[in-house]
Known about the structure:
globular, Rossmann fold, 14% strand, single chain, binds nicotinamide-adenine-dinucleotide, alpha/beta, four-stranded parallel β-sheet
Amino acid sequence: xxxxxxxxxxxGLGHIGLPLGIVFASKGMKVCLQDINAESAEIxxxxxxxxxEYEAEPLLxxxxxxxxxxxxxxSHSISEAKNIIIAIGTPVDEYMNSKTRQFLEFISxxxxxxxxxxxxxxxxxxxxxxxxxxRRTLGEDHNWKLSYCPERIVQGYAIQELKxxxxxxxGYSDDAVEEASELFKRIxxxxxxxxxxxxxxxxxxxxxxxxxxxxxxxxxxxxxxDQDVNYDNVRHAMVEGYExxxxxxxxxxxxxxxxxxxxxxxxxxxxGGFHLGHSAxxxxxxxxxxxxxxxxxxxxxxxxxxxxxxxxxxxxxxxxRDSLSFRLSKVLKFSGAEVICSDEFAENPEFxxxxxxxxKCETVIIAAPHSVYSEIxxxxxxxxxDIWKISQ
Length: 392
Ligand SMILES: NC(=O)c1ccc[n+]([C@@H]2O[C@H](COP(=O)([O-])OP(=O)(O)OC[C@H]3O[C@@H](n4cnc5c(N)ncnc54)[C@H](O)[C@@H]3O)[C@@H](O)[C@H]2O)c1
């Protein structure tokens, strides 16, 4: 059967779908980015990224120009591609449980566009056993070629990482594994074939492992602060020339749309028995409170002007999803402080410039370590809280 596109990415204008589509298109494949977000479609069709993604824009412009990349708001496009990659968002509910039913309803809605000759690749992060539920939702009236190929890039750097990272490939049939491997060999450095369950767990364990590493660093940081000891000096002493401790991160907010979510997906699957994951959540999510309590032990926050630098969930990107900077702002306000916020990348009418923060605030907290904050000369009268230690 002849198809108009080699690949259709459903959720193709998101943080995962868009760079992936751009990279496939840059390898000469015909790619359709299918999405429901008309605003992003307009921005991307003009050759601009709707969010920070380093090195993507020249490739996007080139792929639009040579016709390798198309954008579609019509779900019918899904029937026009040999390979379908599903990369829509998979948020958790207010109790941190995966919204698997919602995802399955979405899969069900796709069925009318699918035929058994197509390869279906699940790219979104999903709960353990979700692939099996997807397979059942698709039904047994056809031999669907269903595979799970999880995404493991670090947001903002997908263009570099997609080329560098090995791709985990799992599938329900030899055909599915073979075709998914061939597809990802076009862009990935190597392929690792696993069972479906192994792939589901490998993806979630990887993020959860990082989340727990950040938590131990944050716990060590809190212990040091309570003892009036500099954690960074301790960390330096631990890691310098000592490879067994080399992976210990520096302290800082560990947040964003993936790490906590994936940790909690394991927890709900393991029926609340993932104690290490829960402890990590309490430590990481508790860091804003710890910082505010430290400030309160030094001075009253009532009417004190406090500025937050960096509202994104991590350095040098504009993504504010699940950023702890907002929790920090809330806790500060709850303690009576007058809070103003700034970010170098994320836009919000309530944000002010970093210069205004420096000019107006008595306390300044670097919440996301955007590189530019390391270049600021912080006046002596400001109480600077820099857990990332980027200002030195
Ligand atoms: N952001 C990351 O760093 C990262 C890393 C690894 C895995 N993931 C996983 O990848 C998935 C996507 O995450 P993201 O950060 O790209 O989310 P996102 O919100 O940036 O992108 C999702 C896209 O899907 C689109 N969409 C939603 N419903 C749709 C529908 N019915 N039809 C077509 N398009 C639809 C949205 O408009 C949006 O453009 C999630 O499961 C996430 O956990 C994300």
